[in-house]
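This part of the workshop introduces the protein records we will be handling. Getting from the letters to the C-alpha cells is the skill we practise here. The record below serves as our worked example for the rest of this section.

…
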Amino acid sequence: QVQLVESGGGLVQPGGSLRLSCTASGRFININSMGWYRQAPGKERALVARITSGGTSNYADSVKGRFTISRDNAKNTVYLQMNSLKPDDTAVYYCHAEGYIDPERTIDVDYWGKGTLVTVSS
C-alpha cells in the first residue's frame, strides 16, 4: 500500500514563487513516473508536469518557462518549483505516482495524493 504526502502549498502574491514537494512511501518496488496535476475552481483536473525515472519531463503549455519539475529517486520525492505565479495558477495541486509493485514488473498501479491548495492573490 502506497501513500503520497504533499507539502508546500499556501498563499503567495502574483509574481512570487513556491515549491511543492511530494514523497511516496509504501510498497512500490519501482516508480516509473511522478507528477503534478491541478484542479482550479470550475475546471477539471489537468496535468501540470510529469517526470520519469530517467529524467524525461513534460509540461502543460500554460506553465512552460515558469515551472520546473524535478525528482530525487533515492528519496522517492518529486518537486515542483513554481515561479512568476499568476492568479490563474490558483488550484488544488495533486501529486501522482505510477509504478510496479512487484519485481517481475507485472503489476502496475497509480496513486494520488490528497492535494495541497495553492492560492495566488494580493
Notes: The two ends are 40 Å apart (CA to CA).
